[in-house]
Design a protein that fits this description.
By secondary structure, the chain is α+β, with helices and mostly antiparallel strands. Helices cover about 45% and strands about 30% of the residues. A six-stranded mixed β-sheet has the order 1-6-5-4-2-3.
């Protein structure tokens, strides 16, 4: 992912372009700007809550969202050290950097907000993802996870809309 990290670094540092990274994009932002990402002791998979930090509750990206965001998690890597100037905006019990901001135009979130009804079933078809799911939640977890994600989908979509609108408002103000 060396070229991807270079592109992120150029966009954020040199061009001061607004950036919003989700999951791998969050991790790439961190590493591209001098932070560290590493494997987790246990993957974080499921419909789980992310708690905003005090900085997160004041951050324009999360305006209009409560102090806790119910989210879809499916990852086994995490930000282990923030980049210089990075601020942690969200956390979970097993992942202390669920959201971050660097400067005034770059954000990353570890959790998934871009969820559709097809997300969990499609990702479950990827052998490595399915294995991570089964390792975390048990061999029969897929049906339960699909049902939980489907029930939470309206909330995921509402949070995604708010995050998108907030990011675009910030992006317009930075590029104006």
């Amino acid at each position: 992912l060396v070229p991807e990290k270079a592109a992120v670094r150029e966009a954020v540092v040199e061009r001061r372009m607004p950036f919003f990274g989700v999951c791998l994009g969050h991790q790439l932002l961190c590493e591209a700007l001098g932070g560290a990402v590493g494997p987790m002791a246990q993957g974080e998979i499921g419909v789980l809550d992310v708690e905003l930090t005090p900085a997160g509750t004041d951050d324009p990206l999360f305006a209009g969202l409560g102090p806790t965001i119910t989210s879809l998690q499916w990852h086994s890597a995490e930000v282990s050290a923030l980049p210089p100037g990075g601020v942690a905006l969200g956390r979970s019990p097993v992942c202390p950097v669920q959201a971050l901001r660097v400067g005034d135009c770059a954000w990353g979130i570890q959790f998934h907000c871009e969820v559709t009804a097809a997300t969990v079933p499609e990702w479950g078809e990827v052998p490595a993802y399915r294995q991570a799911l089964e390792d975390s939640l048990g061999a029969a977890a897929m049906a339960r996870f699909q049902a939980e994600a489907a029930a939470a989908l309206p909330g995921f979509n509402a949070s995604a809309r708010t995050l998108y609108d907030n990011f675009m408002a910030r992006a317009r103000s930075v590029t104006a």
